[in-house]
Amino acid sequence: MTPQALEPLRNHIRSRVIGQQNLIDGMLICLLADGHLLVEGMPGLAKTTAVNALSEGIEGDFHRVQFTPDLLPSDLVGTDIYRHEKAEFEFRPGPLFHNILLADEVNRAPAKVQAALLEAMGERQITVGQKTYRLPELFMVLATQNPVEQEGTYQLPEAQLDRFLMQVVVGYPTHVEELEILELDHNRQQAVETPPPDPIPQSALFSMRKSAAEVYLDPKLNRYIVDLVQATRNPGLYDKEMARWIRFGASPRATLALARCARARAWLDDEEFVSPGHIQKIAPDILRHRVLLSFEAEAEGITADDVIERLLSLVAIP
User: Is 99:57 a contact under the CB 8 Å cutoff?
Assistant: First the structure.
């Protein structure tokens, strides 16, 4: 399979979402790397629209769950229902059994609901009572959250954040893009809208994943990836300032994610091998939610992106 097979899906998303190229690329990379995506941005930046457009172009079931404070874990995983006519309990699957799940405003649900995602995202299975149920082979969670609103929200725990392959931050559109958004909205009101393409079959998607996983990654770049992750755990070996800023470094999941996503990024660019540029390009989205900052860094206004930028400048490229 070649990257051109994804062009109809990419073009369809672009027809529904103006700009936000980093978000579109992030969704496609997670799709190819078989991972989950956390999207952070202010309201009204087309986060939900982009996920809906993605689901329209892929063969499979899609479900959206609006996370709220009164949500229960059973509202996600499902529950056992007693059938009087059979005199036995029957399991009724919840939204997590769909192929693509949009967890909208995921930080509005309390910790016990967020914890219901842990097993599903990590092990691709769900345990209810004494039984364990496998999730579909194509299973992807796309979650959104507002970075500034704190009223009625619950911060995602580190174990939950680590299960997201990438975290993409979306920003405001440019002046030109916002003019295009006005035109797009006018066309929608006039019922002028591009129909979705034929959905990509899951078998074709799995072939794309296999092709992306076969992109060559030089052993020297493997060491570079490990050096980057190790530097988040031992920042004092590289820079005293960075040592003050980082409280906890990234886990081995970050190492695996960097390798998988770098291959997917290179495959999307129609390259036969991974370059250091591919790794550096996706590193912020892989590391920003896994590197925990110290209180000193937060007090000084240092962001995770600032730390990652400094990290990339300090760790030697092979």
Answer: no
